[in-house]
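In the laboratory, one determines a bound structure by crystallizing the protein with its ligand and collecting diffraction data. In a computational setting the workflow is compressed into a single prediction: the sequence and the ligand go in, and a structural description comes out. We illustrate the idea with flavin mononucleotide.
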Amino acid sequence: MKIFNTLEEIDNIEETVVALGNFDGVHKGHQQIILRTVKSAEAAGLKSAVFTFSNHPKNLMAGKTVVKNILYPEEKASIIEKLGVDYMFNIPFDESILTMDPIDFIEHLLLEKFHMRQAYCGFNYHFGYKASGTAETLMKEGMKRGFGIHIQEPFEIDGNLVSSTFIRKLIQNGQVDQCMKYMGRLYSIGGEVVVGNKLGRTIGFPTSNIMIDETMVTPPNGVYVTYCVYNGVRYPSITNVGVKPTIGTYHKNVETHIFNFDKELYGKMIRVEFLQKTRDEQKFESVEALSRQITDDCITARSFHRRIAGTY
Ligand SMILES: Cc1cc2nc3c(=O)[nH]c(=O)nc-3n(C[C@H](O)[C@H](O)[C@H](O)COP(=O)(O)O)c2cc1C
Ligand SMILES: Nc1ncnc2c1ncn2[C@@H]1O[C@H](COP(=O)(O)OP(=O)(O)O)[C@@H](O)[C@H]1O
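The predicted complex, in structure-token form:
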């Protein structure tokens, strides 16, 4: 997949079928739109493309982070690439796009820049000045100018409208066990292993710590059954998300104890995949009490892992 990070970089591209949307989380509704785009492009002998913004439009309008993302742009790109897309237009949402007349948006971006012949978008897609362009605007202009528009109806699973907002809420409520159903993959956080207090190993539970980025959606403090992916291998693990109140005052982080594992991971990249929240983080009266609780947590997590072995 070829990724274009600015409009200026887009040059010499072939005609396209474009999926339009923000696609944060690349959930099952998004996947359906993108897969349909890829199929149509193949059938028509065109290139498939995804047009998305690298920053959330609502954040530019508010002047600060009001919408936290589920995925980093690189993560989003990597998931979209696996769906078979040829081009990704990952463009910064700036003043000029914010204030662009919807007709100019169609003419100058979609047609002149992206060479769009067909588009797929959700029923609630908005674009251009004050988000005044809608799926209907695209329909009308498509009839006039000869491009095709396919509008995806609301996509529901178990009566829930699958949306990025819905998935953000699941994560923020600790309902990580629901993410697979709606996103088609486990919710995960990746990062570089940083040095902690080096206390974990003294209580028998060494942990690999990664920092939490508070500009992203994060799960609530608590203990989770997880997988830890390192070097392409997926290890059963248990993870504490939190501030370690028993030990002191710390920033929120993610620390994972990997079962049957004793390698040094400082400076290495790991990814923690969340299966199930098992309890809230607590302040214990002593490190011994905490250690006893972690022993119990590990028994629970190991039996969970045994139960689901081979499922994911
Ligand atoms: C499964 C698990 C559960 C934990 N639960 C708590 C908790 O409820 N309260 C708390 O203060 N710390 C909790 N911790 C964090 C420990 O305090 C922490 O792992 C220990 O202090 C070692 O920290 P270090 O990696 O910075 O050395 C938990 C850690 C693990 C692995
Ligand atoms: N089973 C394990 N799970 C996670 N990390 C482990 C494990 N065994 C060894 N390690 C390593 O030990 C380090 C953690 O030890 P710990 O005493 O908790 O120190 P820190 O406070 O720096 O996390 C991790 O960075 C990792 O490299």
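Residues 193, 195-201, 206-209, 256-258, 261-266 surround adenosine-5'-diphosphate (ligand 2) (CB under 6 Å). Keep in mind that any predicted model is a hypothesis to be tested, not a measurement.
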